[in-house]
Specification:
Radius of gyration: 19 Å
Protein name: RNA polymerase subunit sigma
Organism: Pseudomonas kribbensis
GO biological process, one term: DNA-templated transcription initiation
Number of domains: 2
Strand content: under 5%
Order of helices and strands: HHHHHHH
GO molecular function: DNA binding; sigma factor activity
Shape: globular
Keywords: Sigma factor, Transcription, Transcription regulation
Distance between the termini: 49 Å
Largest sheet: none
Helix content: over 70%
């Protein structure tokens, strides 16, 4: 481990000690859920740990708020997507409605996909969600995240590859489950 890594960890540790409770309180007001606020605050600091070359921050609370807001928006988007999907299922013809087993499989698959996406770095995950859920174009995503269009393209390739692996794994698991049933 290099001295820079230890220095970076110590810097984030100091930020955590100084601002974690403040960030949790702020997020609780927005989400009305203490455990959700704590999860988002912890993920905020985890993203800071992953940030290479983090230099001295003049306004740490502004940075923490920005990261936490993006995470909160991602969580809201995921919830909106789940609600829309459930509404579509409820509106579909009852003869074609999925069985409870199919719904359980779909729910489990969505949870696995969410865990898979959580393995991606913050900007890669945000790029994927902005494209797939919000339907933004690459130039819009680049402007939203303050990155180049080339980075958007690379991030989408990376996230799509992860999703393809996830899909292949789910297909394999599903076929194994059907054979054992």
């Amino acid at each position: 481990m290099s001295g820079a890594d230890a220095s970076h960890r110590n810097h984030v540790n100091t930020l955590f000690r100084d601002h974690y409770q403040w960030l949790c309180t702020r997020l609780r007001r927005q989400s009305n859920d203490a455990s959700s606020a704590e999860d988002i605050a912890a993920e905020t600091f985890a993203q800071l740990l992953e940030a290479p070359g983090l230099t001295a921050i003049r306004e740490p609370r502004a940075l923490l708020t920005t990261i936490a807001q993006r995470l909160l928006y991602e969580r809201w988007r995921r919830g909106d997507l789940e609600r829309r999907h459930l509404q579509q299922l409820q509106q579909s013809d009852l003869d074609h409605a999925p069985s409870p087993e199919d719904l359980a499989d779909l729910s489990q698959s969505l949870k696995h996909l969410d865990r898979t996406l959580q393995r991606l770095p913050g900007k890669v995950r945000s790029t994927f969600l902005l494209a797939r859920i919000d339907g933004l174009t690459y130039p819009q995503i680049a402007a939203e995240l303050g990155i180049s269009q080339r980075s958007v393209s690379l991030y989408m390739t990376r996230s799509q590859a992860l999703c393809n692996r996830h899909s292949a794994n789910q297909t394999l698991i599903s076929s194994q489950n059907k054979r054992s049933a």
